[in-house]
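Project standup — Tuesday

K.O.: blocked on the structure for the chain from last sprint. Re-posting the sequence here as requested.
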Amino acid sequence: MTTGRFTLTGLAILATALGLGAPGCGDSATPCTDCPAMEGRYRMAFGDAGVPAECLNLGVDLPRNRPLDVTRSADRLIGNLEGVGLLGNISAEGSFSMAGTGPGQDGGRMDTLSLAGRYTSPEGDGGTARLDGTFTGNFSRSGVEPPQRCSFVTPFSATRE
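H.V.: unblocked you, prediction finished:
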């Protein structure tokens, strides 16, 4: 007979699927004991990339040479870019993703940012840690008719200070 309640097995499967089980690196189910040390302050670089015209109309620009601050606890990442809080994970192999939503720099815009890519640790003494990946930005301003929106995806790199 079904009572509509979760069984302990069902609850455990749901918790694992939602990432609420034991903390681990990436897709691993075992606790992370040696996750890459991605924490630090990075300077964002975008090469020759630009933003679409509709984003310029919203006052959006790439956070070129702006700081990305990252803290880490096991595989959990907490970051901040342009005042937008980011949450994410890193795998034992260095793959990472972080995303978050917050008010834009001008206060009247809502920014949703995500970063996904690979962390490369410093190689030997004097080496510099770096991030390489994809930056996705979705921006909107409500309260105007019609509401303004834009989005774009572009490659990025960042070096740790």
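K.O.: great, moving the ticket to review. The chain has a mean pLDDT of 81. The longest strand covers residues 148-160.
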